[in-house]
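--- STAGE predict ---
source: upstream dedup step, 1 unique chain passed
mode: sequence only
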Amino acid sequence: MVSEAIELFYSYAHEDEALRNRLNNHLSLLRQQGFIRAWYDRDINAGSLWAQEIDAHLASARIILLLVSPSFLASDYCYGIEMKEAMRRHEAGEATVIPIILRPCDWEDASFAKLHALPKDAKAVTMWANRDAAFTDIAKGIRKLVNQLNGNSPATSSEDTTLRTKGTQKERSAGEKPMQSAPTINTPALKRAVDRYYKELEGYRGKADYELALRSAFQNLLADTAHQVKWTLIPEQTLDSGVRPDGVLRDTFDLKRGFWEAKGPKSDLDKEIAKKIASGYPLTNTIFENTQRAVLYQNKKRMPTEFDLQNRNDVSDLLKQFFTYTEPDIENFETAVQEFKERIPELAKALLAILEREYKVNRRFISAFDTFAELCRTSLDPKITPDVINEMLIQHLLTERLFRTIFDNPDFVRRNVIASEIEKVIEALASRSFNRNDFLKSLDRFYVAIEGAARGIDSWSERQHFLNTVYERFFQGYSVKRADTYGIVYTPQEIVDFMCASVEEVLQREFGKSIAEPDVQILDPATGTGSFIVNLLHRIPRHKLKYKYQHDLFCNEIMLLPYYIASLNIEHEYYAKMGEYEPFEGVCFTDTLELAEGRQLPLFVEENTERVKREKDAQIMVVIGNPPYNVGQVSENDNNKNRKYSVIDQGIHDTYAKDSKATLNTKLYDAYVKFFRWAVDRLQGRDGIVCFISNNSFIDQTAFDGMRKHLQKDFTQIYHLDLHGNVRKNPKLSGTTHNVFGIQVGVGITIAIRSSAHATQRLYYYRVPENWRKTEKLVFLRESHCITGIQWSELYSDERHSWIITGMRPEFTTFLQMSAKNAKNAKTLDTTTIFKNYSLGISTNRDGVVYDFNYQTLIKRVEQFIDNYNTEVFRWIRGGHSKDIDSFLSYEKIKWSRNLKRDLRNGRFAQFDKDTIRQSLYRPFSTKWLYYADILVDERGQASIFFPNVASEGENAVIVVGGYGRKEFAILASKLIPNLNFYADPAQCFPFYTYNEDGTNRRENITDWALTQFQTKYGPLVTKWDIFHYVYAMLHHPQYRERYAENLKRDLPHIPLLHTREAFESCVQIGKQLMNMHINYEQAKEYSKLEWFENEGVPFSWRVEKMRLSNDKRVVVVNDSLRLGPIPPECFEYRLGNRSALDWVI
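--- STAGE serialize ---
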C-alpha cells in the first residue's frame, strides 16, 4: 500500500460524461485500495473559481487522462488549454499522460498521438462489442502505471514508462504466463548518449553533409543505447530476404529486435521510405532518418508522430519508443500462425546456434545428445545425422508448450514415451547457461493467439482443421526440406470423412463387418496429425471403443512434431468420448517402410519397441491414410533425398518394374508407390482394404503400366476417384486454387478391395471436372459422403494395362512400333520394331555449369567447377572416408548429384579437356556449347554412340520425340546432341546410325525386319533412309497426330503403312524436305519483310533483355529501344508440342 494516493486528472468533454462515469466505476478498486484519487470538474464546489480549480489540479496531478473523442478535439478548452499543459508537464517529466480513446475520431496526427493509448490497439471504447471489457483493459493499464510510479516495477523512473508504443505488451489474465517484459532505459545514460550525438554532429558541421559521414553519429547513438538493453547493433547486415538495412539490432538470443535506415539530409525521406518498403524492408520496429527528421514503423504501421531530430526531447522519445518496443499479442489466429511460420526460421537458427555452442562446452549436454543420437540411429535411421537430431530438439522446444496448453495436458512430457526422452536432452542443455523460458518469451504473442483460438473451438472437425493448420504452417516455415522429402501436407477433413465412411461401407457390404468389430484391425502407416484414427474413433460406439482403442487401432509416424500431435489428438478424442484419460499405445514413433525390412531393431525406447512388436503381430485388415506424395527430392544439394528400402525397393523391382514396358521407371520408386507396395504386402494375402489418397500419376502414365497390372492382380475391386489438380499437365490450373492439397501433381482417392468371395476383377473410375476449384471438390466429397454417393464408370484395361483408354484407338497397337524396351535390349537387329536403339537426351544434372551460348564463358565456368570438385575429392581422401558423404560435403559451390557423389566417393578426379566441348541442341532451334565429359555430365545416355565425335554430326541424324505423357505431341530432327529436357520434359531420341564410342563401326539403326516390312509393301528399292524420312513425315501428319493424340500420350509412336506406293513416296519426299529444313534452319533464306523499329525516346541498345512478343503477336520486343516486325501469322502455325517454333526461340 502506498503512503499517499496518486492524483489522477480527467480531461474530457461533457458530451462524454456518461463514458467517463463508467470508466470511473472501473477504477473504483484502485481508489478503495488507496492507490489513486481521481479528480474532474464536477468536483468543483459551488462558488469556487472553476478555472483556477482546474489549473491547480492539472498542475498537481501525476496521471492525466485525455478522454479522446470528436467532442474532445472540438473543445477549445480541452484540446487548446488542458491538453497543451498536460503535454508540457509530460515532456518535462512532471506527469504521465495517457490518451483514452472513447469514440472514433481523427486523433492520429495530434501531438499526443506518439503516446501509448488505451484501450488495447487504441480501439475506441464504443467500437468494442463488450464495453466493460474495454474499460477493464484501461483499468489494468492504469494499475500497471500506478505500480511503476510507486516503485513496484523494474522501471527506473516515471519517465521510463511514458513513451511506450501502441504495440506495447498487453496484460495477461490471471494464471497466464506473463509476456516478455519490455526493456527499460536509464534516463541519465540516455541523456549522455544524446549529448554525445549532438556533439558528434557538430563536429561534421561545415565539413560533411552527406549520408555516409553523418549516419555514423546516429549509428553510435543507437549502439550506445542498445548497450543499455543488452542489444547489439550490427551495421549493414544482409537479411535472408536480400535487403540490407544500415543497422540490425539483435538481442542476447540473436533475434532481430529492430532495424535502422539512414538517408542524407537533403534526401526526400518519404520517397526513400517508399522505395525501401517496396524492396521488402522489415517494418516490425524500424527507424528511417535523415538527421533532420525520423519516421518510426512498428508492427508494420507508421507511427502517427514524426520526430524532429533537432529537438533533444524528440530524439529521447524516439529512442525510448524504439528500444522499449515489444511486439503486441496477435488476436487473429490465422495471422498468428502465418507470422509464426515467418518467424520460425529465425528462432530455429538461434536455437541451432545455442545447440552447437553447448555441444562444444557443456559436458552433460554432450553426453545426453550422443546417447539420444545413438538411440535414433539404432531405432529410426542408421544414417541419421546430427542436423536431424537438432531438428527434433528444436521442434520439441518450439512447440511443447502448445501441446500442454491446447490439450490441457500439463503432464504431456512425462506421459509421452518419446517426449520424455527428448526432455532429458533439453534438461541437459539448460544445465549450464541456456534458459528455455527466457528464450521462448518472444513467442508468447503467437502462443497466446493460438491458445486462445483453441479454447474457443468446440466443433470436432474445426479442432482437426486447427491442429492441421498449425502443423502444416510450422513445417512450411521451419523445415522446407523435410516437407519436400515427406510431402508434408495435411488431409482436409472432407477427404478424411469420405475415406473413413467409404471403408465402413465396404466393410459392411463386402465382409459383413464394421469398423467397430473386434477383429477389424486398422493401420494408418503415415498418420501425420492422426486425423484418420481420430475420425474412426468418432465413428465407434462408446460401449465398443475401449477395446478398439486398446487392441485394434494402429498408426505410425516418423517425424517428431506430427507424432506428438497425433498422440495428443487421439488421446484427447478418446477422453472427450469416454471421460477418462488413457494413453494411446497404438501410435508408434517409427518408419513404416523400415518395418518391412525385417531387421530386429530396438525401436527408440522399450515401450515404443513393445508397441511396434504388437503392431507387427496384428492381423491388419484395413490400411488407410495419406502416404507421402512427393516425387523425390528436388535437388541433391538439399541433402534430403528419400531413403532407400531394400525389401520394398526389391519388391517394386520384381513386380511393378519387371512388368513395365517403359524404359524410364524411376517414378516407380516414389514414396507413395512404395506405400502401395508395402500395403499389399502388409495384408499378407488376407481379405482386406487399402484406402489411400495420393499422387495419382499411376492411373495413366506409361511408367506405371506394371504397377497397374499388379494392382489388378492383387485386388478384386479397385475404385479410383480422380480429383485432378495436375498443374504440370494443364498449366491453366493453379495448385493453390484447384488442387485439394495445394500442390502441383494430380491427386486421387484409391479404394482397393481384396475379397475371396469375388472371382473376377472389377475396376471403377470417376473424375471430377478438371476446372473445379478445391472448395468445389471438397463440397462434392462432403455431399457424396462415401463411395455409394458417386456414379462410377466401370473401366476395362487393355493388353498394355492402360486404364484410361477414352479416345485411344485400338488399331494404333497394330502399327509398326518405332522401338521398345525389349528391342533395345536385344543382342541383334532381329527385332520386330523399326529402330533397334533409342535413348533419352543427355541428363547433365548441372546445365547451368556445362551449357553456355559463349564458348569462352563456358571454359572458365567449367574450369572453376573442376577446381572446386577436385578440392572436395582431396578433402574426402584426407578425411579417411569416415564420414557420411551427405553430411561431409560442402554445398555452396558445387551442384551435387547422385552420380557426382559416387565419383567423389570413388576418389575420381576431373580433368579439363577442351576437346570434349561440343555443340548441342539445348531446346528446339536453340544451340548451345556443351562440355560433354564424364563426371560433369551425369547421364550421357546413348549420345556417346549416337554422336561420338564431330564427324558423326555431319552424317547422322536423330528424330527427337517429345516424352509421352505430354499435353501435346512434339517432334523434331537434329544433327546435334539433344538435351534430356529438350521439350521442357524428357525426350526420346531415335538415330539413323549408331557407332562405337571411338566413332568406329558405324551401323544402321533401322532393323532389317523393318526394311523387309517396307520392301514387301512398297517394293525392293525402298532404303532405310526412305524409312527414316517416311517416319518423320508420318509423325508430322496432322491427321495422324489428331487421330492418335491419346495413344501418343501413353506410348512411343507406332507407324502405319499407307496403302499405295505413291503415297509412301510422297511422304518420303515430304519427310526429307522437312528434316532438311529443321536441321539446317540457320541456313534458311532470311525473311525479307521484317523491319527494325526503334524507340527514339530510349537510349539505343542491341542487348537482349527479356525477349517477348507484343500482345497481338505482331512484333518481337528485343528491349525497350528495339522491336522487330511485322511477324507473319504463319509463324505460329507450325507447332512443336504446345509452342510454335518462334515461341521456343523466345
